[in-house]
Write a structure and sequence with these properties.
With 384 residues, this protein is α/β, with parallel strands linked by helices. It has a domain of 235 residues: 3-Layer(bba) Sandwich (FAD/NAD(P)-binding domain), CATH 3.50.50.60. The protein is 34% helix and 30% strand. Strands 5, 6, 13, 14, 15, 16, 17, 18 and 21 form a nine-stranded mixed β-sheet that branches. Strands 1, 2, 8, 12, 19, 20 and 22 form a seven-stranded mixed β-sheet that branches. It has a three-stranded antiparallel β-sheet with strand order 3-7-4. Helix 1 packs parallel to helix 4, helix 1 runs parallel beside helix 8 and helix 8 runs antiparallel to helix 9. The longest helix is centred in the last third of the chain and has 31 residues. The C terminus is likely disordered.
Length: 384
């Protein structure tokens, strides 16, 4: 049973359904999600989606990006990552989350999947070889295992008594759609401003999503700005010309925090995506890390039922926990390093930018992601 119908939960459900497992999905939403957010998918994630026979359907609504340009607004350091460095046409794709969700749910309709909309998990109890799930409607569901993909405020994590490490980044993100009258050329641009990192992600030829992580002590100053005033600050702080930008959506603001579960699995329960780990959006790795969880778990279930779900979950934990703890540490170091305005630290990071930008082999280490081939094979339906 999968709890949560977001991208990570439905991708996991689809991968397992394709292998012949009987899947159910529980979500407290009254209807399938259709998020307006835009997300970055790297090559490894798009490869996994291809293995789910989904990519051809969603790639037409995605925007490929071939370069990532990063600079320090108050320094001279600058670095550019290009798909040419790894002999690829693109580094990844920007896609609307709602389109990806719709594609996954459409594919799930091809399999015998039970959906429980408008249902909230309220209690879990172990009973011999199964887990009993109690929903707020009064329904009881018996399941061999539970996959918690229900987000940052995960009910599965709480009911499963998973301990967590969490802290605030002391920043809030402002997200909005920005229009321009110039071709954006499929380039992601990120500037480290004195207020916090500012990223512009191309979502079409002349439109981009802005994600600006603002220090908490300054966020109220930005909230009170009118759109025209906000654009003036944006143009001044970005450090590179933006041609006739205008805000074409509501500005959404949300606090940024870190969370890592101390253990991603326990007996017959496994956590995935934001339910297990949540990092700063600085490098756009959140969804890609969650899809990495899904890919790992789907592949491990090739050994089921010869190996029990409990044993598979131990393997999953041993593989994904160190990976995500390392990612969290790197993001924390990255955030602190580029958020610090100390003159010596700024001089050092600008020197690092220049060094990395000169050395192609070093840049490859940052951008080359190994692609693993996943093969789907048909088996008899096995309850999960």
């Amino acid at each position: 049973m999968v709890i949560g119908s977001g991208v990570v939960g439905t991708a996991t459900a689809l991968g397992l359904a394709m292998k012949g497992f009987k899947i159910g999905i529980v979500d407290q939403s009254s209807s399938p999600p259709n998020s307006p957010r835009h997300l970055s998918l790297n090559k490894k994630s798009s490869k996994f989606l291809s293995s789910l026979e989904l990519w051809d359907e969603v790639v037409t609504s995605s925007m490929p990006y071939s370069k990532i340009q990063v600079w320090d607004r108050e320094g001279t350091g600058r670095i550019e990552f290009s798909s040419e460095d790894i002999n690829e046409k693109s580094l990844g794709y920007i896609i609307k989350e709602g389109n990806l969700q719709k594609g996954l749910l459409n594919r799930l309709q091809e399999y015998d999947v039970d959906f429980f909309w408008s249902e909230k998990l309220t209690q879990m109890r172990e009973d011999k070889d199964s887990l009993i799930l109690y929903l707020d409607s009064g329904k009881k569901i018996f399941s061999k295992s539970i996959l918690g993909a229900d987000g940052l405020n995960s009910t599965v994590r709480k009911l499963g008594n998973f301990k967590v490490k969490s802290w605030s980044y002391d920043q809030s993100a402002i997200v909005a759609q920005i229009d321009s009258d110039r071709d954006l050329n499929g380039i992601i641009k990120q500037s480290f401003t004195k207020y916090g990192p500012l990223a512009l992600l191309p979502i079409s030829k002349n439109q981009m999503t802005m994600i600006w992580s603002i220090d908490q002590e300054k966020i109220n100053d930005f909230v009170s700005l009118k759109d025209e005033e906000f654009i003036k600050v944006l143009k001044n702080e970005f450090g590179e010309k933006i041609y006739n930008p205008s805000i074409s959506s509501e500005r959404i603001i949300f606090p940024l925090q870190h969370l890592t579960a101390i253990g991603f699995a326990k007996k017959k329960i496994a956590l995935l995506g934001d339910a297990a780990h949540h990092v700063h959006p600085l490098a756009g790795l959140g969804l890609n890390s969650g899809l990495g969880d899904a890919e790992c778990l789907v592949k491990l279930f090739d050994s089921y039922p010869a190996i029990s779900a409990e044993s598979l979950f131990k393997k999953y934990n041993n593989e994904r926990l160190p990976t995500n703890v390392g990612l969290a540490a790197a993001m924390e170091l990255f955030k602190r390093g580029f958020g610090n305005q100390n003159i010596w630290l700024k001089t050092f990071r600008n020197s690092v930018f220049k060094l990395v930008n000169r050395e192609k082999d070093i840049k490859k280490i940052f951008i080359l992601v190994p692609l693993k081939h996943l093969s789907a094979r048909k088996v008899e339906q096995t309850p999960l």
